[in-house]
Amino acid sequence: MSDETKAKVGRRDFLRKVGIGTVGAGATLATPLVGPAQADSENNDEKRKARYKESDHVKTYYRVNRYPA
């Protein structure tokens, strides 16, 4: 009879308590990760310049992975 009188934690109650604990821990951990916003340092010409260069290691990657030339 003593087993029946013990308070049982239901699944929803357990998940609710775990959820509250993770929210509280997340709020304290996320605070130092937030920093001030920084503006974009590139001008329009730098943003539009060609960046892809088919170098030797890129050609080797394509050859090894059987990409069509």
UniProtKB/TrEMBL annotation:
Q: Where is this region: Disordered?
A: 34-57
> Which PROSITE patterns does the record associate with it?
TAT (PS51318)
Biased composition (Basic and acidic residues) is annotated at 44-57
**Domain of life (superkingdom):** Bacteria
Q: Which InterPro entries match?
A: Formate_DH_TAT-contain, TAT_signal, TAT_signal_bac_arc
Q: What is this protein called?
A: Formate dehydrogenase
Which species? Bradyrhizobium ottawaense
